[in-house]
Structures are given as structure tokens and as C-alpha cells.
Inverse folding.
């Protein structure tokens, strides 16, 4: 029995020594889930682009007997005064994404921008068969500021968001007409006010990866967008009243309508 006991003890000691020499099992890796990007959150940013007008024709009719001057082309019945230029401004908004990653996104955005849309047109008309004087017709239109408050709805393919947009628009509009007979100003009309209407369009937005050189915040909160917006602030009649000429005057009709193609950069609060 003594010999058996000593043999078992020696075997156990050898097994322990052999087990100590074996490599230890590594602990299981800790799984860290990768955050899923979501468009949900408030944002603000800047934009710049190209703006132009549509429906640029100013139509004029005479009041009473002054319509004869329009018929005889002394005062032009239709004058095209197209405009184009740059726009620049900023925007703020909020998006909500129903399912993080890919899914439907809804939101609201308000923007305001300077519009380089002003144009003056001058006509010099001499038709001695109807009037012995040189007549000068001057037209001016100016949209110096445009703002919108729009809803946005679209679909996000992870970091790519494609959307449509539409809503309320307002702008600072100036319209002016002056008619001269020889040197004196004989008819004049002017209006400058905040006109309202609507805007609609669409665009695409992309959230920059963290390691992008354009992502100067080094976060997932910087997005770039390209969009096209149409605006329509309606039509208005302008009385070009007598300031020394015969009769009451003329009525000139303007329409303020156009589009903006622009790019923008946003910073979004709440990366994920």
C-alpha cells in the first residue's frame, strides 16, 4: 500500500508540472459593436451657388388713350429682363430618421441667402411718325434676398441621403419703371417690399467619414450637399403713374420666379 501511495503521488506531481508547462488559454475577445450612422439631429451650415430668373418678361398696357402709345411701340408692350448671378447664405434644420443605417428621413429646414439678381434695362425709341421726341423707357428689377422654410423627406442609404423638399418662400423685391419723353420724366412707378410665395426642389447629401480631410471636426457630424431649388414669389402690377405727362399712366406687370443650383456644408449635432 505504501508503494502504491507513493506511485500515485509521483504521478499527480508529474501531471501538475506538465500542466504548468502548457500555454494558457486566451480570454475570449471583447465584442465592440460598430455604431450605426443616423441622420437624426439638428444641424446648421452654409451654402453658395448660381441663381437665375424665369418668366422675365415685363408686360405693359396703357390706361385709356395711352394704350395707343403701346400699340405704336412707343412704350414696349413686352420687355424681357433676364437676370443671373451668385447666391450665398446659410441654413438650419432638423432631421429624424426612422431606422438608423438605411431608411426614411423627414425634416424641416430654414435658409436665407443673398441673391445677386438685379438688372436695369434702358430703351431709346424714336418713331417720328407717332411722336417727334426721343422716348426713353427704363426698367429695373431686383431680388436681393431670398428665404425659405421647407419640409424635407427622402431615403438614406447609410451615409447618402436623397430627398425632395418644398414649402414657404419670401424675398426682398424691388421693381421700377420710368418713361421719359425727350428729357423730362413723364411717367414713373416703383415698389419695394417683401413678397411671399413657395419653393420646391430636391438634392443629395453625404456624411463625410471621420478620416476625410474635409471633415475638419474629425467626427461623423460633417455633411456635404448639392441641391436645386425653384422659387415663385408671384406676379404684381405696378402703376407707372403720370408725373407730368398726359393721362393717368400705364400698368406694368412683373413676375418674380427662378431657380438656384447650389452646394452646401452642414455640421450636425449628435453624430450617431
Amino acid at each position: 500500500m505504501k508503494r502504491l501511495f507513493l506511485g500515485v503521488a509521483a504521478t499527480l506531481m508529474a501531471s501538475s508540472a506538465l500542466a504548468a508547462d502548457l500555454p494558457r488559454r486566451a480570454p475570449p475577445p471583447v465584442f465592440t459593436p460598430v455604431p450605426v450612422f443616423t441622420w437624426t439631429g439638428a444641424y446648421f451650415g452654409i451654402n453658395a451657388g448660381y441663381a437665375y430668373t424665369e418668366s422675365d418678361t415685363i408686360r405693359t398696357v396703357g390706361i385709356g388713350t395711352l394704350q395707343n402709345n403701346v400699340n405704336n411701340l412707343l412704350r414696349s408692350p413686352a420687355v424681357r429682363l433676364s437676370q443671373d448671378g451668385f447666391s450665398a447664405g446659410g441654413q438650419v434644420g432638423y432631421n429624424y430618421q426612422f431606422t438608423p443605417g438605411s431608411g426614411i428621413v423627414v425634416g424641416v429646414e430654414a435658409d436665407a441667402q443673398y441673391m445677386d439678381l438685379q438688372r436695369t434695362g434702358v430703351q431709346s425709341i424714336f418713331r417720328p411718325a407717332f411722336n417727334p421726341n426721343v422716348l426713353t423707357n427704363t426698367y429695373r428689377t431686383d431680388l436681393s434676398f431670398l428665404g425659405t422654410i421647407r419640409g424635407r423627406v427622402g431615403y438614406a442609404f447609410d451615409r447618402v441621403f436623397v430627398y425632395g423638399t418644398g414649402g414657404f418662400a419670401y424675398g426682398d423685391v424691388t421693381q421700377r419703371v420710368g418713361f421719359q419723353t425727350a428729357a423730362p420724366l413723364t411717367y414713373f412707378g416703383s415698389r419695394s417690399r417683401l413678397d411671399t410665395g413657395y419653393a420646391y426642389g430636391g438634392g443629395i447629401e453625404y456624411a463625410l467619414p471621420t478620416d476625410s480631410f474635409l471633415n475638419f471636426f474629425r467626427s461623423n457630424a460633417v455633411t456635404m450637399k448639392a441641391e436645386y431649388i425653384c422659387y415663385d414669389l408671384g406676379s404684381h402690377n405696378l402703376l407707372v403713374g403720370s408725373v407730368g405727362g398726359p393721362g393717368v399712366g400705364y400698368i406694368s406687370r412683373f413676375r418674380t420666379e427662378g431657380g438656384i443650383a447650389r452646394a452646401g456644408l452642414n455640421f450636425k449635432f449628435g453624430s450617431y
In short: Residues 38-268 form a domain with the Porin fold (CATH 2.40.160.20). Strands lie at 41-54, 57-62, 78-80, 84-97, 102-125, 135-157, 160-181, 185-207, 222-242, 249-268. The chain has two helices and ten strands. The radius of gyration is 36 Å.
